[in-house]
Amino acid sequence: MSAPADLTREQFARWWRETGERELRQVLLWRWDPIGVSDSFPNAADEYDGYGPGVVALLRAGASEDDVADHLAFVERETMGLPADDPAQLARVAQLLMGWFANSVESWQHGASD
Hints:
Helix content: 55-70%
Structural class: mainly alpha
């Protein structure tokens, strides 16, 4: 099994289209949710869609957990105007995102090879 970062450009695009984008939307809404909109589901289901490509690019590039947490903190602070004052929560979400990415790609690769 290849590492997620080893997907070809075409494989990555297919995974993102078929699986990744939809799954990441759920992770960002239900586990990150810095502005607290998950209670407004399904109306707010797309609230964090604009941040997904930046997150997944970091994951694909092999960013560390700290790098992912720092990115989320930057988004909260600079884009959303929030204090980003819970580094433990950001670390948990970063760890979750890293595990999700590896598991999602691996599951997709098993299904794509059928």
